[in-house]
Write a structure and sequence with these properties.
The chain is an alpha/beta fold. It has helices spanning about 45-50, 75-85, 105-115, 185-190, 220-230, 245-255, and strands spanning about 5-10, 25-30, 35-40, 60-65, 100, 130-135, 140-145, 145-155, 165-170, 175, 195-200, 230-235, 260, 270. The longest helix is centred in the middle third of the chain and has 14 residues, at about 105-115. The structure holds zinc ion (2 copies).
Amino acid sequence: MSLKVLALGTGICVNGVHHIPDRQPPAYLIEVDGLNILFDCSEGIRFRLQAAGIDYGLITHVAVTHAHPDHACLPQLIQAKLCRHLWGTHDARTAEMKIYLQKTLARDFPQVWNWHQPENDGGYWNEFAPQFIAMDDGFEEELKPGINLKAFSVYHGYGKHPAMGFRLETPYGTVAYTGDTGLCEGARILAQSADLLIADCQVRVGQEYTGGYGHMGPRQCGDIALKSGAKRLWLVHYMGLDEPQVMISEVRASGFFGDTVVAQDGERAEFK
Ligand SMILES: [Zn+2]
Ligand SMILES: [Zn+2]
């Protein structure tokens, strides 16, 4: 028994510019005690899961940090799960799908689904019916005994975009994911004593003045890790224009000297 984390996408919403090596948009797979949990659901995620040897039909929990299109390709995964269930399966989990969304996003999602599938009259087919769980700041749910999902509001999109970061507590360790955020109290709380902190690092070195939109630079990620007592730090959602060693130096300048990685797609961590 263990907690496994796999980075399926450490990139952002663009590729193919400035000769930056391609990385996939945000998504993290967490496997713990038979649960397959997805943090963020970006485009083409089912292919990346398949390439990683995971059947997307068996992803039962999907937690989405916010609705920016690089994080929230939900209709595509729902449609794929629905049709996969419709086409026949021997595993009951293909019918299960719990989707965790900030409460206003959970309220509005049916309109998005209806835009894609008006013929469904707002519903789903063949006993496949995803459950939408509305989250507010401080949300907590026990997914199974000893495994708790918590969510905290974070600052993003000039503070106008409803966004949350997550924390999954398990008997083997705690993984925290900021989603897209600027420096804020929510990010510090969700990262408290985490064994692994996955932090949004989209702001370039020396350009922290742009952080008001709601992203962090590497020094700010280090600051969050230091003040929250996180043990390990993955910098993710970075543009790829700064040298990794320069990003790490910035983290050290914050005073955080824990294990730090400029994460690549396919990055893995395991806690026992
Ligand atoms: Zn965003
Ligand atoms: Zn983003």
